[in-house]
C-alpha cells in the first residue's frame, strides 16, 4: 500500500495523522484493497496451487490470488490471476465467500473454479504451479494466510 501523504493536499499543513488534517476538514479516505483467491480443481478433484515467488509468504504453496484492478470485473480478475500465475484457464464457479478483518486493508473474495484448458506452467509470480489432491492428504499445503483454513473449509463442507 502506498505511504500516507505527509502534507495536507488542501491546506499544505504537515499531517500528524494518516486519517486527515487537524488544521482543516480534509479527510484521507483509505480504500480497501480487493483481492481474489481462486480454488480451482481439475477433473480429478485436485486443487491448483502455486509456489509463491514474492512476499508475503514467499516460497509457500498457496492458491492463485491477486488484487483486482480498478474497473476490472471481480470474476475477470480471478480468471486473469489464475492464468498469469499458472497458465491454466478456468471457469469461475460459485462464490465461496468474502473474508475481511478489522485493521486489515485487504478484502478477500474467494471463488470456486474449474479447469477449462491452458497449460500448467508457472508465470513470473510463481516458482512452480501444481495440482494437489484435495482432502486430508498429507501432501496438501498448510494454511498460509489468515483466512485460508476458513476458505478451505468452505469447499470441503458438503453443499446444501
Ligand atoms: Zn489541511
Amino acid at each position: 500500500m502506498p505511504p500516507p501523504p505527509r502534507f495536507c493536499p488542501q491546506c499544505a499543513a504537515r499531517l500528524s495523522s494518516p486519517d486527515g488534517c487537524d488544521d482543516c476538514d480534509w479527510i484521507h479516505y483509505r480504500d480497501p484493497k480487493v483481492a481474489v483467491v481462486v480454488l480451482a480443481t481439475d477433473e480429478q478433484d485436485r486443487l491448483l496451487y502455486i509456489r509463491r515467488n514474492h512476499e508475503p509468504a514467499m516460497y509457500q504453496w498457496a492458491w492463485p490470488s491477486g488484487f483486482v484492478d480498478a474497473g476490472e470485473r471481480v470474476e475477470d480478475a480471478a480468471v486473469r490471476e489464475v492464468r498469469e500465475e499458472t497458465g491454466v484457464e478456468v471457469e469461475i464457479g460459485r462464490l465461496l465467500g468474502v473474508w475481511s478483518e478489522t485493521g486489515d486493508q485487504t478484502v478477500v473474495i474467494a471463488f470456486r473454479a474449474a479447469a477449462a484448458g491452458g497449460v500448467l506452467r508457472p508465470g513470473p509470480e510463481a516458482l512452480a504451479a501444481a495440482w494437489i489432491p484435495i482432502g486430508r492428504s498429507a501432501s496438501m499445503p498448510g494454511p498460509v494466510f489468515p483466512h485460508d483454513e476458513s476458505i478451505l473449509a468452505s469447499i470441503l463442507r458438503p453443499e446444501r
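The chain has a mean pLDDT of 91. Residues 1-30 form one domain.
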